[in-house]
Design goal:
The chain has about 325 residues and is an alpha+beta fold. It contains 8 helices and 7 strands, in the order ββαβααββββααααα. The chain has helices spanning about 20-25, 45-50, 55-65, 115-125, 135-170, 175-205, 215-280, 300-320, and strands at about 1-10, 15, 30-40, 70-75, 80-90, 95-105, 105-110. It has a 7-stranded mixed β-sheet with strand order 2-1-3-7-6-5-4, with helices on both faces. Helix 5 runs parallel beside helix 7 (about 215-280) and helix 6 (about 175-205) runs antiparallel to helix 7.
Length: about 325
Amino acid sequence: MKVRTKILGSDGRVREGDEALLEAWNAASGSTLWLDIEGNISDNMNSKLVSLGCHPVAITDISRARQPPELHEFDRSTFILFRGIIQLDEQLVLVPQQIGIFAGAHFLVTVHRGESLSINRLWSEIQAEQAQRTPGELALHVMDYASDRYLQKILAFEDHLGELEEGLLSKPSDGIMAELVGYRSELRKLRRIFNYHNRLVEEILSEQPRHLGAEQERDRHLWRALLDRCERLFSLTSMYYEICGDLVEGYISISSHELNTTMKILTIITAIFVPLSFLAGLYGMNFDYMPELHMEHGYFFALAAMASTASLLVYVFKRKNWL
């Protein structure tokens, strides 16, 4: 477990240290405490979090490996469980990161198992010359940066999806088909995550937990902007998911059409050669008393009959637009 602490003084001063700095913090001083925990929570830290104002049930939720995003308001803190991002590659394969956030009147606690780019970025941005930020603002900026990273990756995928669509229309292949099926599977997972986030921020705006500042005009505007981004992420992934599905169905339709065309041509060829095979089989029988067996020009008559039959069938098929 890795613990770091930052105290944002009311005078603009910033103090940074480890777990020992937690003991020096006093809520009555008006300063804001930010406690960041990376890794599993120890029993000792669990007790300190409870005494700080974090609810034991929420701490248990953080410890679970797979827990959907959620929002809970307790007496001394508001708890947010958010699905962050460790990596989202060009294939849309997501390595998610669960981030637990406790926001109190004068403290913020962030808990995550691995290194968090969102938290590290905000941690390094807070300098002594900046004005003091409330716990609600800090929680908002952590979620905002994570959603912005999601949006950049999703928008970058749009160009590649256009290339796949053009390739499928010009030169369809099983490779493109397999790639689209893979993207569709990953988009389904992302859409579920963004749906959770969308409902989470909607709940924050409607319930207005007292420790997040959603009831204040300035912060409410920022939460509204975050909601717009979450809604956009959900709508984009839903749209791309449907496009991938349409392209897959289009590829199947094209393949079925090509197969039907091939089968039609083979059927026509078979239909033309069946009567010819019948005539050849009929006159290929070696009975002594066949009527046409000793005709002088019987061979040519048989060829003429075959040619006439084939020509008639070709004419009929063209009249019916089968050829």
